[in-house]
């Protein structure tokens, strides 16, 4: 089967980019509520909904959260990703293992993070649809965030999502086409030619 010719790709799935430069404009609470609500509509194993979201909007707390990130490509020589503190909000996505483990036992440790990342994807797409940019930050000191946010032992922070209106237009990075990530009936047999 050859790669089909697709119509122009539009909408939040195709418009979403990782943005690290923000306008310094407040996101209305009603829109934050819509974004979080979109997350709660994600699919979840056994409908256990293991997600928890800490919304950080205080300047000093955002600075402390940024200090817990690892230096990355975009840290410009700093010891942490300081651009994170400039976002209007930082959503700290957490997994509450109790809910999924109650139904699935030890398998819940594998499934609950998958469910939570589905919720994060919904939130990122809902934000994009409303003109709000974001960037998933996975490089952070878990124990530092846990201590700073008073996260209990059965809850695990898995990602920081700074969000706000973008200051600049960020270009979409090249993505692998369907041809390169699909297999037909068994591994390593191309589905698309």
From TrEMBL:
Pfam families for the chain: Nitroreductase
Protein's UniProt keywords contain Membrane = no
Give the record's keywords alphabetically.
Oxidoreductase
Protein name, UniProt field: SagB-type dehydrogenase family enzyme
Where would I find the Nitroreductase domain in this sequence? 13-163
Query: What family does the entry list?
Result: Belongs to the nitroreductase family.
Q: Does the keyword Isomerase apply?
A: no
Q: Which domain of life is it from?
A: Bacteria
Q: Which PANTHER family match?
A: NAD(P)H NITROREDUCTASE YDGI-RELATED, NADH DEHYDROGENASE_NAD(P)H NITROREDUCTASE XCC3605-RELATED
Q: InterPro entries per the record?
A: Nitroreductase, Nitroreductase-like
Native species of this protein?
Caldalkalibacillus horti
């Amino acid at each position: 089967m050859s790669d089909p010719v697709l119509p122009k790709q539009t909408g939040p799935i195709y418009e979403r980019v990782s943005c690290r430069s923000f306008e310094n404009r407040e996101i209305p609470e009603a829109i934050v509520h819509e974004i979080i609500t979109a997350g709660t509509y994600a699919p979840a194993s056994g409908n256990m909904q293991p997600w928890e979201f800490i919304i950080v909007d205080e300047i000093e707390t955002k600075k402390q959260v940024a200090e817990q990130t690892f230096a990355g490509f975009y840290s410009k020589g700093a010891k942490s990703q300081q651009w994170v503190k400039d976002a209007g909000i930082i959503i700290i996505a957490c997994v509450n293992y109790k809910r999924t483990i109650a139904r699935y036992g030890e398998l819940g440790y594998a499934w609950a993070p998958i469910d939570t990342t589905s919720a994060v994807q919904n939130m990122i797409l809902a934000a994009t649809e409303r003109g709000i940019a974001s960037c998933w930050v996975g490089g952070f000191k878990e124990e530092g965030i846990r201590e700073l946010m008073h996260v209990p032992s059965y809850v695990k922070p898995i990602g920081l999502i700074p969000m706000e209106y973008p200051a600049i237009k960020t270009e979409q990075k090249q993505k692998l086409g369907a041809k390169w990530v699909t297999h037909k009936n068994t591994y390593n047999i191309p589905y698309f030619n």
